[in-house]
Design the sequence.
């Protein structure tokens, strides 16, 4: 009887550890290589940004320092296709993780990007559902690895004649229904 009770308590404590949330709005989660600040985007979404991100506002500036009006479209050419972005994400996941989220309706990963005037990705912020069975469970160092992979791959290409801007903000998204 004692053994059974001890086994049940052990099982419940292990289940509780697995159910703990990593990314809690208003908290900083630290790893060895990176720390992330978490905010709530909606009731069901969490936004996570590296604490080293310095550009946390949505304002975009021209190279001369003037503010780009909200009604002016920022029209850069995406340097990487969405298909390639999905492939990078898929290759990053383990086979088990991929199976857990593949084809999941209503789930995805939003990547908010800050690019410099040359189009290089400087900062990335992630938004995902707080009940995402995979990304919400990534420890900070694993999320940092994903951030670095995306920073290497995502480059903004300007159309000829486009007004150059600095710290351009734009978003990319991965819909889990696109995963194969």
Sequence:
């Amino acid at each position: 009887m004692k053994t059974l009770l001890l086994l049940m308590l052990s099982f419940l404590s292990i289940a509780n550890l697995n159910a703990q949330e990593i990314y809690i709005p208003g908290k900083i989660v630290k790893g060895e290589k990176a720390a992330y600040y978490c905010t709530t985007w909606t009731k069901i979404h969490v936004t996570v940004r590296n604490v080293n991100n310095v550009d946390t506002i949505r304002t975009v500036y021209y190279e001369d320092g003037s503010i780009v009006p909200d009604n002016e479209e920022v029209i850069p050419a995406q340097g990487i296709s969405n298909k390639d972005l999905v492939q990078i994400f898929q290759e990053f996941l383990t086979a088990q993780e991929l199976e857990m989220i593949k084809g999941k309706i209503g789930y995805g990963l939003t990547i908010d990007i800050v690019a410099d005037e040359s189009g290089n990705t400087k900062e990335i912020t992630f938004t995902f559902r707080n009940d995402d069975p995979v990304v919400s469970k990534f420890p900070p160092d694993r999320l940092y690895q994903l951030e670095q992979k995306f920073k290497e791959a995502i480059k903004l290409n300007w159309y000829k004649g486009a007004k150059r801007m600095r710290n351009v903000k734009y978003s990319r998204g991965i819909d889990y229904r696109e995963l194969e």
User: Anything to note?
Assistant: The radius of gyration is 19 Å. The first strand starts at residue 28 and ends at 30. The CA atoms of residues 27 and 146 lie 20 Å apart.
